[in-house]
């Protein structure tokens, strides 16, 4: 359904899964508020692509982990308009065994996923509460559900985000704000470019990595008017990996 009145804020959308979500939601008629951190070229070419298909897109470069940057980018926009959709997708991994993990690899990973969620969501949900409508989708990970050696920081962050998803869903459901998590397995993006694919494929019943578009379709559904009674859930998109 095309609905030009609705805005979708997607964090970490210059590439990978976030870019696929941006395409999906633009195709569904949302005006995109497209956040990213540093890759201006990728973000600008994505915005051009969306506009060339008739979509609307506003670029918002800021670091989700920096509360002052988040406030100065979003508060002026939120004073005028309220997104119907927020997708918390920005993130990265810094893998390594815990015994050798530096304090910054621990705090940076928790910061981008958990503080990033907090910094952006607290501003947006305050507006959604006034409007009595909204959809929040948090992109988590199989790693936060099953645990993966070498990813204690990342698993802790994503497991924390799953807890936040369930608690926020309980907190805002009465105001018709639906909060869910989408949990990808191995998806082909820059983030997974250096992984040893051949060693990992035997763990995946479908025998391949997923594509970003195989994640974004579910996000589009959860943001649509066909998903009005789903909240507090975690949906795996992982090719059948056992959790
Ligand atoms: P990606 O291709 O590396 O893209 C990451 C995006 O996040 C980029 O747009 C990047 O922006 C942005 N970003 C990173 N740090 C940011 C920050 N501090 N503030 C704002 N934006 C920031 O990664 P991806 O694979 O698409 O991952 C997207 C999400 O899916 C992440 O939350 C990740 O944990 C999750 N996930 C991925 C997989 C997978 O297999 N790929 C599996 C499970 C979950 P710039 O490049 O412009 O700086």
Could you characterize what this model shows?
44% of the residues lie in helices and 16% in strands. With 243 residues, the protein is an alpha/beta fold. It is built from 8 helices and 7 strands. The protein has a single domain, classed as Rossmann fold (3-Layer(aba) Sandwich). A 7-stranded parallel β-sheet has the order 3-2-1-4-5-6-7, with helices on both faces. The structure holds NADP nicotinamide-adenine-dinucleotide phosphate.
Task: Please outline the helices and strands.
Elements: E1 7-10, H1 16-27, E2 31-36, H2 40-52, E3 56-61, H3 67-78, E4 85-88, H4 103-131, E5 134-139, H5 142-146, H6 152-172, E6 177-184, H7 197-200, H8 212-222, E7 234-237
Parallel strand pairs: 1-2, 1-4, 2-3, 4-5, 5-6, 6-7
Helix pairs in contact: 1-8, 3-4, 4-6
Short description, anyone?
It is built from 8 helices and 7 strands; from the N terminus they run E-H-E-H-E-H-E-H-E-H-H-E-H-H-E. The protein is of the alpha/beta class and 243 residues long.
Radius of gyration: 17 Å
Mean residue pLDDT: 97
The fraction of residues in strands falls at 15-25%
What is the tally of beta strands? 7
- Helicity range: 40-55%
CATH superfamily: NAD(P)-binding Rossmann-like Domain
So what's the CATH class? Alpha Beta
Number of spatially distinct domains: 1
- Largest β sheet strand count, sense and barrel closure: 7 strands, parallel
Order of helices and strands: EHEHEHEHEHHEHHE
CATH architecture: 3-Layer(aba) Sandwich
Which class do the helix and strand fractions yield? Answer: alpha/beta
What would you call the shape?
A: globular
Predict the CATH topology.
Rossmann fold
